[in-house]
Amino acid sequence: MNSADLAKILREQTNQRVYIRQLIILEQSVSLIKARLYISPDLFVQIYRNDRFDSTNLVLIHNQQRIYGRDHIGGVWHRHPVGNPHSHDTSSEGRRDIHLSEFLDEVETILADMNLP
């Protein structure tokens, strides 16, 4: 998924998921996109993609703290699990390729488990 494709997918996912209140593109160029999907003022998903460096960061933020995330750096994915978001899960599940829609499915489950909006 490159940054141009990701921009389209962000719009589609925003329209399909009723809990996403607002999409804000913070930065965009030919090879980069940084965006936020706001669920509430202090709860959002931040998405970053840099095609030049082949890096992707998907993170769920609550009260200015990462509570969950997945990163693709150097051709390899890893996960920052709920309950220990500063650690790197490099298990087979943590290294699994993930699409934005799958990440948002995971976010929905986490929000329900944590009783967040």
What does this entry show, briefly?
The chain has 117 residues and is an alpha+beta fold.
Q: Topology of this protein?
A:
Layout: H1 3-16, E1 22-28, E2 32-40, E3 43-50, E4 55-62, E5 65-73, E6 76-80, H2 100-113
Antiparallel strand pairs: 1-2, 2-3, 3-4, 4-5, 5-6
Describe the 3D structure.
- The structure is a single chain.
- With 117 residues, the chain is of the alpha+beta class.
- The chain has one domain (3-113).
- The protein contains 2 helices and 6 strands; from the N terminus they run αββββββα.
- The protein has helices at 3-16, 100-113, and strands at 22-28, 32-40, 43-50, 55-62, 65-73, 76-80.
- The chain has a 6-stranded antiparallel β-sheet with strand order 1-2-3-4-5-6, with helices on one face.
- The radius of gyration is 13 Å and the shape is globular.
- The protein starts with a helix and ends with a helix.
- The mean pLDDT is 96.
Features of the shown structure:
single chain; 117 residues; alpha+beta; six-stranded antiparallel sheet; 24% helix
